[in-house]
Design brief:
The protein has 93 residues and is mostly helical. 59% of the residues lie in helices and 9% in strands. It has helices at residues 3-19, 35-50, 53-63, 76-80, 87-92, and strands spanning 23-26, 29-32.
Length: 93
């Protein structure tokens, strides 16, 4: 990933973490949550937001065989999923 794009992703991560209060105390100091804690928190917030709508939404996705691509933070899909699409690749489509 180009350095300028990586920096933009990192700045976006920090803005999201601050906006959603994803800060914890470690040794009396404020620290950002780890990446896994952040992803977990984002999914908790999503579940709160969606409530019962989530099941209907998921059922429709499964029924229509339409699975979303989720981009979280600075390239999590690239780090954890083989052959995941890149932003550049998706934009070219």
């Amino acid at each position: 990933m180009p350095g300028e794009l990586r920096k933009a992703h990192q700045e976006n991560d920090i803005a999201v973490m601050k906006a959603y209060g994803m800060i914890k105390k470690v040794g009396g100091k404020d620290k950002f949550m780890t990446e896994s804690e952040t992803v977990s928190k984002l999914f908790e917030l999503y579940e709160e937001l969606m409530g019962n709508k989530k099941m209907k939404f998921l059922e429709e996705l499964i029924k229509n065989n339409q699975y979303p691509i989720i981009f979280i933070g600075s390239g999590i899909t690239q780090r954890y999923f083989n052959n995941a699409p890149t932003w550049e690749g998706l934009l070219k489509k």
